[in-house]
Amino acid sequence: MVTSELGACEWFVWDLRRSNLIERGHLDQIVGEFFQSNPRAAPPALAEYLIGQEILTNFQAERLLQGKTQGFLLGPFTLMDALGSGSMGTVYKAHNKTDNQWYAVKVLPRRSMWNVRIARRKVRAFEQCKHPAVIPFVDVGTAGSMHYLAWPYAEGETLEQMVTRDGKLPAELVARLAMQIAEGLEVCHAQSLFHGILKPSNLMVNAQRQVAILDFGIGCLLAETEGESLVDTMSTANSVSSGLDCSSPESIMDPTNLTPTGDQYSLGCVMYYLLSGRYPFADGSAAEKMMAHQFKKPQAICELAPETPPELIQVIERLMQKKPEDRYGSAREVVETLRPLVKRASGVIPRPPSMKAAPPAVKPVQAPQMDASPVATAAPKPQSVTLSMQAPRPQSMNALPTRTSLKNLPAAKPVSPSVVAAPEKPRASVTIPGGADGGEETALLEDRMGPVGLFVTGVAACALVYGAAVWLKLF
Asked: What is the pTM of this model?
C-alpha cells in the first residue's frame, strides 16, 4: 500500500505492522477496504473500525493510539486485555494461539530476574496438583526484556470484591469456602508447593460458589531454592508488603520461609476477614502490622460477628496461633475439622432476609369434641356455682316483673314500635344447680338477697380484700 494513501493514519498503520498483531497481508487488505469508503479518516476512526471487525480489542487499540507497539506477544500468548496490577506486575487476559485457550498472564517488571531452569521445575510440579480449587502455574518465560508467568484464566469475583460489595459473609458460606481452600492447599502441600501470599484478593469464587486459588506459584519464586532466590529482592519486598494483612509471623521475619503452617495462618486471616468484614490488624503502618502479627491478638470474632458458631471461631483461633506448632498438623486436619460444620450448615435452608423468624410453636389446647354437623351441640352443664353476665331483659309488655319494678311504679305504657329502648346494664346472676324440675335455676342476686343483703355482701367483700392486702404486705 502506498503511504500517501494513508494520510493521517500513516503512523498508526506502521505501528500496527510493528506490533505484529495482524498478519501483514491481512492488514493491508483490511486497511485498503476501509480507505475506499473513508479516504480522509483519522487514526481513531480506523481503530474503531478494526475493533468493530474484531481484529483489535479496545485494550490493544488504546495502547496503539498511545504509540505503544511492543509487549503484545509473549511467547505463545497474545495480550488481549488488562485485568489489574499487583505487587509484582500487571496481570493480562491472554489468548494462547497454540491451544486456542485463555490464560491469565502476569508480566513482571524488567528488573525482576529468576533462574528459568528452577522455575520450570516448579511448573512441572504443579502438573500433579489436580483440584478444582487449584489454578496451576503452567508457564514461565522471557520475551525480549520482559518476563511472564501464566495460569489458566478463571472467571468470577475475588473474595475481597464480595466483602466490599456485600459486607460480612454468612458463617456457613465461610466454612464451605475455607474447606475448599484447605483441600486445594493439601494437594499442593503434598508436592512441597506452598502459596505464601494467600489473601482475599487472590481467592476467586465463580457462580457455582467454587473457590479458585490464584497466584499459586508466586510464593515458590520468592522462596530460596538450591541456595538462590528465583525473584530479585525488590520484587520479594513488594510482594511481602502487599500481603501483610494475612502474612504469618514467621514469613514476616523471613519472606523465604514458606511452610504449610504459614498457609494455615493466612487462611485463618482470610476467614477472619470474611466473617468480620475487616482484617485482623487493619489499622497502623506496615511496621505496626508486622509487630501485631508477632505479638498481639485481634479483636474477638464473637464481638464483630456474634452469630458465628463457636466451633468455627475455634478453628480460626487455632489457625492464627503465633507459634506454627500450635496450629493444625496439616491442611488435611483442617479439612476434617471443617467438614462437620459444612455438613451441618448444608442441611439448613436459609430464610430470605425479608422473613422474620417464626415464634416457637405452642402446643395447642385440646378442644372438646364437637359434632361435625353445622348445628352446635349444647355445652356441658356446670357442676358448681359460677358467676356469669346475664343478657339484658327484653323491653316489652310481656317481660316478667321483678320486685324492684313493682315498687312505686306507674302502670306500664305501651311502647311505640318506632322507639327503640336502650338496653339495661347487665346485672350479675347466679346459677344454682338443681332447680324445681331437677335442672338449673337462674335468679338475679338482687331478687334473692334484696338491697340490704347486697350492701352487706359488698361491705364484707371489701373488708376481705383489704385484709388480704394487709396480710400480704406483712408477709
From this structure: 0.65
